[in-house]
């Protein structure tokens, strides 16, 4: 079952089977590519995707980790928060928000991420325009949500 591999959304765009290696490449509309073992259906790459990235028109925010120079965070209009390893050129974690992110920042010690929510575009306001969330950097779990300002 391709959905058990962990894509952001379970919408397959293509599948390719290699009979020589019994491997299956599965691509999702969320710009994720996974490799499955064709005999038992397991993810060949320890639960992660081969390729991943933001899949909606804009990248809203980027922040570098204050203590670990190789790590950075991105948020975008695809409603995802992603932690990346620049040294190994791979995505480490991803979480799906309920609205798009427009900016992000790490706490001084790097344990928290603050994500500003909404489009930031007058006339195209999101449901939670001006709100923000605090996430654990370690696993991207929601720790706090607040709306400290009104929409544009």
UniProtKB/TrEMBL annotation:
- Top-rank taxon of the source lineage equals Eukaryota
Q: Name one GO molecular function term.
A: microtubule binding
Q: Which residues form the signal peptide?
A: none
> Which InterPro entries does the annotation name?
WD40/YVTN_repeat-like_dom_sf, WD_repeat_EMAP
Q: Which regions span the lipid bilayer? A: none
Provide the alphabetized UniProt keywords: Repeat, WD repeat
Name used for this protein in its record: Uncharacterized protein
